[in-house]
User: Fold this.
Amino acid sequence: MHGYNVKTLTQFIIERQADFPYATGEFTRLLYHVGVAAKLVNKKVNKAGLVDILGEAGNINIQGEEQKKLDLLANWQFIQALKNSRECCGVASEEDQEIITWDDELSQDGNYIFCMDPLDGSSNIDVNVSIGTIFSIYRRISPRGTKPIMEDFLQPGNKQVAAGYVIYGSSTMLVYTTGRGVYGFTLDPSIGEFCLSHLNILTPDDGNIYSINEGNYNHFPEGVKKYIEYCKQEDKSTKRPYSARYIGSLVSDFHRNLLKGGIFMYPPTASAPKGKLRLIYECNPIAFLAEQAGGVATDGVRRILDIQPESLHQRVPLYVGSKNMVQKLQEFL
Ligand code: AHG
Ligand code: MN
Ligand code: MN
Assistant:
């Protein structure tokens, strides 16, 4: 007999609930709904080539970028799922200028707030290259039974209770952490379930991949330029020259480096003097995952997770990946 022995995401989070003292099931329900939204968005991403949802929506989002239709769709889908969960009192999204709150009692009683980049790697949608969703969950500071306030969303990354991403790739995966290791689930489309596939992911301490948009080289800080030269130098004992790999979707670039070992860099540039990536939606969740897997994430000076956010859409430089590689980069910075 060849049965099918799998552990689904839902099963897994219910089992893990026991790990949290005083867990009431609220957080479990929230994560469950994140999984549902991920599956719905996945369906749309798969169909993107077939129906008229490719391309621009005709708006400019808060960061001044063109909002793709799929960005809006993913944003809407996750917001609906979060509202349906009844455990989330508010959402901050890369696609929305203001935080999203609800008027009903059940939502305002929710204990968690949710920050997300609903569709990461938008520029890759039209060309069938992997894209993702990044999310981050915090416990609210404001009292339950009220609308959440800005302070709830401006907590430093070290206060995250969970973070993760969905990668819509050659297969679709959901990877998350609650601060007790990193777990990866692969979507089996035949049964419509995320199945545990990557138990306690640990990233190698060393790697031989460097990921950076080198087109911006002329504008990089001197230290980054020198480190890039270091990456290209010949030295067998340290596996150099390293391989350059850059997809242009943070989720995909990070996911590859997480599994294989590597460093991802988005330094300040002329067009983005504070870096391009957003602290709350991109850097904090990725940093939490990286650290949980044994890696490091810094803005060059500070540990990403210790940065006190000043505004919702704040950007910071990001250097993240294998411990020894980030350490080496920091010697150059
Ligand atoms: P988004 O699609 O959510 O706007 O994010 C795109 C980000 C990130 O995914 C990626 O690492 C980076 O932008 C790529 O930027 P460049 O095209 O400047 O390299
Ligand atoms: Mn993004
Ligand atoms: Mn995005």
